[in-house]
Design a protein that fits this description.
six-stranded mixed sheet, seven-stranded mixed sheet, 15 strands, 8 helices, Metallo-beta-lactamase, Chain A, binds zinc ion, alpha/beta, globular
Length: about 280
Protein backbone atom coordinates (compact mmCIF):
# COMPACT_ATOMS: atom_id res chain seq x y z
CA UNK A 1 0.00 0.00 0.00
CA UNK A 2 1.87 3.03 -1.24
CA UNK A 3 -0.83 5.60 -0.65
CA UNK A 4 -2.37 6.62 2.64
CA UNK A 5 -5.62 8.57 2.72
CA UNK A 6 -6.14 10.98 5.60
CA UNK A 7 -9.57 12.55 5.16
CA UNK A 8 -9.27 14.50 1.90
CA UNK A 9 -5.47 14.33 1.89
CA UNK A 10 -3.42 11.75 0.00
CA UNK A 11 0.08 10.74 1.12
CA UNK A 12 2.13 8.87 -1.46
CA UNK A 13 5.27 7.04 -0.31
CA UNK A 14 8.34 7.32 -2.51
CA UNK A 15 11.89 6.13 -1.92
CA UNK A 16 15.40 7.13 -2.83
CA UNK A 17 16.62 3.61 -2.03
CA UNK A 18 18.20 2.46 1.21
CA UNK A 19 21.20 2.67 3.52
CA UNK A 20 22.68 -0.06 5.68
CA UNK A 21 24.94 0.22 8.75
CA UNK A 22 26.65 -2.10 11.19
CA UNK A 23 24.90 -1.95 14.55
CA UNK A 24 28.04 -0.82 16.38
CA UNK A 25 28.45 1.96 13.84
CA UNK A 26 24.94 3.42 13.90
CA UNK A 27 24.04 2.61 17.54
CA UNK A 28 27.48 2.75 19.18
CA UNK A 29 26.12 2.96 22.75
CA UNK A 30 23.84 -0.12 22.50
CA UNK A 31 25.68 -3.40 23.22
CA UNK A 32 25.09 -5.77 20.32
CA UNK A 33 23.65 -8.44 22.64
CA UNK A 34 20.71 -6.15 23.45
CA UNK A 35 19.55 -6.50 19.87
CA UNK A 36 18.90 -10.21 20.27
CA UNK A 37 15.13 -9.89 20.85
CA UNK A 38 14.91 -7.68 17.76
CA UNK A 39 16.71 -9.96 15.32
CA UNK A 40 13.63 -9.87 13.06
CA UNK A 41 14.25 -6.16 12.45
CA UNK A 42 17.85 -6.72 11.30
CA UNK A 43 19.40 -7.78 8.03
CA UNK A 44 22.42 -10.00 8.68
CA UNK A 45 23.19 -8.05 11.89
CA UNK A 46 22.89 -4.73 10.13
CA UNK A 47 20.28 -2.01 10.37
CA UNK A 48 18.71 -1.11 7.06
CA UNK A 49 16.97 2.21 6.52
CA UNK A 50 14.57 3.04 3.74
CA UNK A 51 15.21 6.52 2.33
CA UNK A 52 11.55 7.48 2.28
CA UNK A 53 10.06 10.69 0.93
CA UNK A 54 6.37 11.52 0.89
CA UNK A 55 4.34 13.38 -1.71
CA UNK A 56 1.30 14.91 -0.02
CA UNK A 57 -1.63 16.17 -2.04
CA UNK A 58 -3.51 18.54 0.24
CA UNK A 59 -5.53 21.74 -0.15
CA UNK A 60 -4.83 21.88 -3.90
CA UNK A 61 -1.09 21.70 -3.41
CA UNK A 62 1.56 19.05 -4.00
CA UNK A 63 4.05 18.91 -1.16
CA UNK A 64 7.22 16.83 -1.17
CA UNK A 65 8.54 16.00 2.29
CA UNK A 66 12.30 15.25 2.24
CA UNK A 67 14.39 14.69 -0.88
CA UNK A 68 16.57 11.65 -0.12
CA UNK A 69 20.30 11.22 -0.41
CA UNK A 70 20.54 12.45 -3.97
CA UNK A 71 22.18 11.28 -7.19
CA UNK A 72 24.52 8.32 -6.99
CA UNK A 73 28.15 9.49 -7.20
CA UNK A 74 29.96 8.45 -10.40
CA UNK A 75 32.54 6.49 -8.38
CA UNK A 76 29.91 4.32 -6.63
CA UNK A 77 27.60 3.19 -9.44
CA UNK A 78 26.31 0.32 -7.28
CA UNK A 79 25.19 2.47 -4.33
CA UNK A 80 21.71 1.28 -3.26
CA UNK A 81 20.25 4.78 -3.46
CA UNK A 82 19.76 7.60 -5.95
CA UNK A 83 16.35 6.34 -7.01
CA UNK A 84 13.99 9.16 -6.10
CA UNK A 85 13.41 10.68 -9.54
CA UNK A 86 12.99 7.21 -11.03
CA UNK A 87 10.37 6.55 -8.37
CA UNK A 88 8.65 9.81 -9.28
CA UNK A 89 8.33 8.56 -12.86
CA UNK A 90 7.18 5.10 -11.75
CA UNK A 91 4.41 6.67 -9.63
CA UNK A 92 3.33 9.14 -12.28
CA UNK A 93 4.47 12.27 -10.41
CA UNK A 94 6.46 14.94 -12.24
CA UNK A 95 9.06 17.10 -10.44
CA UNK A 96 7.30 20.18 -11.88
CA UNK A 97 4.08 19.15 -10.09
CA UNK A 98 5.70 19.83 -6.71
CA UNK A 99 4.96 23.31 -5.41
CA UNK A 100 6.32 22.94 -1.87
CA UNK A 101 9.40 21.04 -0.71
CA UNK A 102 9.44 20.63 3.07
CA UNK A 103 12.52 19.27 4.84
CA UNK A 104 12.02 17.64 8.24
CA UNK A 105 15.67 18.51 8.88
CA UNK A 106 18.84 19.19 6.92
CA UNK A 107 20.85 15.99 7.31
CA UNK A 108 22.30 14.71 4.08
CA UNK A 109 19.75 11.94 3.49
CA UNK A 110 16.86 14.44 3.50
CA UNK A 111 18.13 17.16 1.16
CA UNK A 112 19.98 15.25 -1.57
CA UNK A 113 17.72 15.96 -4.55
CA UNK A 114 16.95 19.60 -3.71
CA UNK A 115 19.17 20.94 -6.47
CA UNK A 116 20.61 19.75 -9.74
CA UNK A 117 23.94 20.88 -11.20
CA UNK A 118 23.61 22.72 -14.50
CA UNK A 119 27.20 23.40 -15.50
CA UNK A 120 28.58 25.70 -12.80
CA UNK A 121 25.10 26.67 -11.58
CA UNK A 122 22.58 25.01 -9.29
CA UNK A 123 18.99 24.81 -10.42
CA UNK A 124 16.04 23.57 -8.36
CA UNK A 125 15.20 19.94 -9.16
CA UNK A 126 11.57 20.87 -8.47
CA UNK A 127 11.35 23.98 -10.64
CA UNK A 128 7.99 25.26 -9.41
CA UNK A 129 8.61 24.71 -5.72
CA UNK A 130 9.60 26.88 -2.81
CA UNK A 131 11.64 25.12 -0.13
CA UNK A 132 10.73 25.09 3.58
CA UNK A 133 13.48 24.70 6.21
CA UNK A 134 13.34 25.14 9.96
CA UNK A 135 15.17 28.16 11.25
CA UNK A 136 16.91 26.02 13.90
CA UNK A 137 18.46 23.71 11.30
CA UNK A 138 19.23 26.56 8.92
CA UNK A 139 21.32 28.18 11.64
CA UNK A 140 22.89 24.89 12.72
CA UNK A 141 23.97 23.99 9.18
CA UNK A 142 25.90 27.26 9.00
CA UNK A 143 27.85 26.68 12.23
CA UNK A 144 31.50 25.85 11.50
CA UNK A 145 31.62 23.49 14.51
CA UNK A 146 28.64 21.46 13.24
CA UNK A 147 28.43 21.77 9.48
CA UNK A 148 31.33 19.60 8.24
CA UNK A 149 30.32 16.57 10.30
CA UNK A 150 26.58 16.96 10.71
CA UNK A 151 25.53 18.70 7.49
CA UNK A 152 28.21 17.61 5.01
CA UNK A 153 26.23 18.34 1.86
CA UNK A 154 24.68 21.64 3.01
CA UNK A 155 27.08 23.68 0.85
CA UNK A 156 25.79 22.00 -2.32
CA UNK A 157 22.24 20.93 -1.43
CA UNK A 158 21.00 23.59 1.01
CA UNK A 159 22.94 26.86 1.02
CA UNK A 160 22.41 27.64 -2.69
CA UNK A 161 18.64 27.70 -2.09
CA UNK A 162 19.11 31.10 -0.43
CA UNK A 163 20.99 32.56 -3.41
CA UNK A 164 18.16 31.32 -5.63
CA UNK A 165 15.63 33.08 -3.37
CA UNK A 166 13.73 29.85 -2.76
CA UNK A 167 13.91 29.49 1.03
CA UNK A 168 10.89 29.73 3.32
CA UNK A 169 11.46 29.45 7.04
CA UNK A 170 9.33 27.55 9.53
CA UNK A 171 9.50 28.00 13.25
CA UNK A 172 7.48 26.40 16.05
CA UNK A 173 4.04 25.14 15.09
CA UNK A 174 3.84 26.55 11.60
CA UNK A 175 0.85 26.19 9.32
CA UNK A 176 2.10 25.04 5.89
CA UNK A 177 -1.38 24.66 4.37
CA UNK A 178 -4.82 24.44 5.95
CA UNK A 179 -4.35 20.76 6.81
CA UNK A 180 -0.58 20.62 7.33
CA UNK A 181 1.17 21.87 10.46
CA UNK A 182 4.76 21.48 11.60
CA UNK A 183 5.33 19.87 14.99
CA UNK A 184 8.73 20.72 16.49
CA UNK A 185 10.49 17.46 17.44
CA UNK A 186 14.02 18.65 18.34
CA UNK A 187 16.90 16.47 19.44
CA UNK A 188 17.90 14.53 16.35
CA UNK A 189 18.73 18.00 15.02
CA UNK A 190 18.13 21.36 16.74
CA UNK A 191 15.30 22.34 14.40
CA UNK A 192 13.86 18.92 13.55
CA UNK A 193 10.20 19.03 12.45
CA UNK A 194 7.54 16.38 12.03
CA UNK A 195 4.55 17.21 9.82
CA UNK A 196 1.01 16.73 11.13
CA UNK A 197 -1.71 16.13 8.55
CA UNK A 198 -5.28 16.82 9.68
CA UNK A 199 -8.27 16.31 7.41
CA UNK A 200 -11.85 15.12 7.72
CA UNK A 201 -11.43 14.23 11.40
CA UNK A 202 -8.36 12.06 10.71
CA UNK A 203 -4.69 12.63 11.54
CA UNK A 204 -1.34 11.37 10.35
CA UNK A 205 2.19 12.41 11.23
CA UNK A 206 5.19 12.40 8.90
CA UNK A 207 7.74 11.47 11.50
CA UNK A 208 11.07 12.49 10.00
CA UNK A 209 13.93 11.10 12.09
CA UNK A 210 12.21 11.28 15.47
CA UNK A 211 12.74 7.50 15.21
CA UNK A 212 14.85 5.46 12.79
CA UNK A 213 13.65 1.95 13.57
CA UNK A 214 10.44 0.31 14.80
CA UNK A 215 12.59 -1.07 17.62
CA UNK A 216 12.67 2.43 19.11
CA UNK A 217 8.95 2.19 19.91
CA UNK A 218 9.91 -0.50 22.41
CA UNK A 219 13.27 1.10 23.28
CA UNK A 220 12.62 4.85 23.04
CA UNK A 221 15.89 5.65 24.82
CA UNK A 222 18.07 4.00 22.18
CA UNK A 223 19.76 6.87 20.42
CA UNK A 224 21.98 6.67 17.38
CA UNK A 225 25.13 8.52 16.44
CA UNK A 226 23.00 10.65 14.12
CA UNK A 227 21.01 12.07 17.08
CA UNK A 228 22.78 15.36 17.78
CA UNK A 229 21.38 15.88 21.31
CA UNK A 230 20.82 12.42 22.85
CA UNK A 231 18.90 13.58 25.94
CA UNK A 232 16.57 15.86 24.03
CA UNK A 233 16.08 13.12 21.42
CA UNK A 234 14.87 10.75 24.15
CA UNK A 235 12.54 13.28 25.76
CA UNK A 236 11.07 14.31 22.42
CA UNK A 237 10.58 10.72 21.30
CA UNK A 238 8.88 9.68 24.53
CA UNK A 239 6.48 12.63 24.44
CA UNK A 240 5.76 12.10 20.75
CA UNK A 241 5.08 8.37 21.14
CA UNK A 242 2.71 9.14 24.03
CA UNK A 243 0.81 11.58 21.83
CA UNK A 244 0.72 9.30 18.78
CA UNK A 245 -0.67 6.47 20.90
CA UNK A 246 -3.13 8.64 22.84
CA UNK A 247 -4.53 10.39 19.77
CA UNK A 248 -4.36 7.26 17.56
CA UNK A 249 -2.41 9.12 14.90
CA UNK A 250 -1.28 7.16 11.84
CA UNK A 251 2.45 7.49 11.21
CA UNK A 252 4.49 7.86 8.02
CA UNK A 253 8.05 6.92 9.00
CA UNK A 254 10.56 7.50 6.23
CA UNK A 255 13.33 5.26 7.59
CA UNK A 256 11.06 2.36 8.63
CA UNK A 257 10.50 -0.47 6.14
CA UNK A 258 8.79 1.00 3.05
CA UNK A 259 6.26 2.49 2.69
CA UNK A 260 6.58 3.32 6.40
CA UNK A 261 2.85 3.70 7.13
CA UNK A 262 1.73 2.27 10.45
CA UNK A 263 0.30 2.70 13.91
CA UNK A 264 1.44 2.26 17.46
CA UNK A 265 -0.27 -0.65 19.17
CA UNK A 266 0.05 -1.80 22.76
CA UNK A 267 0.21 -5.45 23.77
CA UNK A 268 0.78 -6.53 27.37
CA UNK A 269 1.97 -3.08 28.34
CA UNK A 270 4.51 -2.73 25.51
CA UNK A 271 4.36 -0.64 22.41
CA UNK A 272 4.83 -2.12 18.97
CA UNK A 273 4.87 -0.90 15.41
CA UNK A 274 2.05 -2.23 13.29
CA UNK A 275 2.76 -1.57 9.62
CA UNK A 276 -0.27 -0.92 7.42
ZN1 LIG B 1 17.59 10.43 8.09
Amino acid sequence: MNTLRVGHVEILALSDGMLEFDLCNFFPTIPEGEWEPYEAHLHAHKVRFNLGSYVIRADGRTILVDTGLGPRPADTPDAPWGELLRDFTARGVRPEDVDMVVMTHLHRDHVGWNLTADGPRWVPTFPNARYWVSRGDWEACHRPDLQPQRYPNAPTCVWPLADLGLVEFMDGEHSLTRGLTTVPTPGHTPGHMSILVTSGGEQALVLGDAAHSPVQLEQPDWVSRADMDPDLTRRTRRALLDRLEREKITVAAGHFPAPGFGRIVRLQGRRYWQGL
